[in-house]
Amino acid sequence: MTTNEVLKELETMGSESTKRTFIRYGAPEPFFGVKVGDMKQIVKRVKKDHDLSLALYDTGNSDAMYLAGLIADEKKISKADLQHWAQNASWYMISEYTVAWVASESPYGWELGLEWIDSANEKIVCSGWSTLSSWLTIHPDATLDLSALEKLLDRVAATLQQAPNRVRHTMNHFIIACGISVTPLTEKAIATAKKVGVVKVNMGDTACKVPDAVAYIDHARQMGRMGIKKKMARC
Length: 235
What we know:
single chain; mainly alpha; globular
């Protein structure tokens, strides 16, 4: 499929009700308002297409940018491509999901995650913490730098409450990812969450709530989901 063909199909899938919902969540124009489930009809046909994913992302259309992440080829995307994506993410659904998912599945996830959390750009920082969180969920504990992760949890404990709005949200999810996906860090993650305390994030005109990290980790333990790794970050 060509970029224009995909855009035309996305336009037919869009709805005003979905668009209004996304606007409440902070999505900027241009976009059509396509549900992710509907978008995956295109993914089934296209599968992975490196060139098309790059072209779709560069349209600046939020629906197309999200779709770009779903069809991106993590083995072909370059570090420069990922830097470009992080710098040009239009809103948090792109920076914290699209960019982070693809980056974490690429060979550059750990490196870029560490680099991005030191950025002066809030969206890039969010991409960084989200990338690190996703990285933990798809890589075996034996391949992880546990010492570095412990230091990152200490950093979260010391800085989360002073961090920008969405950064607080992604740091909180990093605590949860460490606690659930990396069992050697479970107790450290719980201690970090208790040290941080209640995390407040402005979610705009939505009913979304910030998950309580301790409760979230405890629930995963009760459900027998501790230490389970996923095959891929994207969903």
